[in-house]
Amino acid sequence: MKKDSPWYLALWCVVGIAIGIVFVGVLTSVVHWAGTEKFCGEFCHDMTVTYEAYKKGDHYRTDSGVTAGCSDCHLKNESNHFAGPIDYTALLIDKAIAGSKSAWGFVRGTMNTPEKQVEKREEMATAVHQQMIDRNFATCRGCHDVERMYDPKRPILAMLHKGMGPNAEKKVDCLACHPTAGHNYGYVIPFKAAAK
């Protein structure tokens, strides 16, 4: 086949498209895998204490069976199910920053044991809480459509959450009322002694 032949060009276009599809598929799979609880809690980030507290938190097991994982709450745009390319790029950057902070803490030796994780827990919790405030709890609002909230047994819930929907300009602090939504450290018994 001659290099100046249209078939030659078509062949390279098909090969390029196939490589692109495989690349996007692999990238998406790796990003998804790197956002699972198993990855965050056991594989890459050694966050033993945090992972145990997550398993005791309100989002690990729910009445409806719908759960929120690490990425849903901790990464920008993860709970926004209609993210476009710019939002997805921001999510990848956020994931890289979060992962590098964890990895750097592990390499430096400040996060490499459960005892050290307990020591850093307050500092990490404060940083994450501030990040959520700065983002106006967009990750909470990405899953919880409080404007449509309705519980006939507890009608006051809808009234309490009125005006806190995803497009609300009103600043809220979801963790003020829901402190164990993501992690419940009160039940992580084995590491309580190390926290004192």
Would you mind describing this structure in some detail?
- This protein is mainly alpha-helical.
- It is 58% helix and 0% strand.
- It has ten helices and no strands.
- The chain has helices at 6-33, 37-43, 48-56, 70-74, 85-108, 114-134, 138-143, 156-161, 174-177, 192-195.
- Helix 2 packs antiparallel against helix 3.
- The termini are far apart.
Kindly summarize this structure in a few lines.
By secondary structure, the chain is mainly α.
Ordered list of secondary-structure elements with their pairings:
Blueprint: H1 6-33, H2 37-43, H3 48-56, H4 70-74, H5 85-108, H6 114-134, H7 138-143, H8 156-161, H9 174-177, H10 192-195
Order of helices and strands: HHHHHHHHHH
What's the total helix number? 10
Strand coverage percent: under 5%
Separation, N- and C-terminal Cα atoms: 75 Å
* Unreliable stretches: 191-196
Number of strands: 0
- Structural class based on helices, strands and sheet pairing: mainly alpha
What is the C-alpha radius of gyration, as a whole number of Å? 21 Å
Estimated helix fraction: 55-70%
- Biggest sheet statistics: none
Kindly report the average pLDDT value: 82
* 3D shape: globular
Identify the notable features of this structure and list them briefly.
196 residues, mainly alpha, 58% helix, 0% strand, globular, disordered C terminus
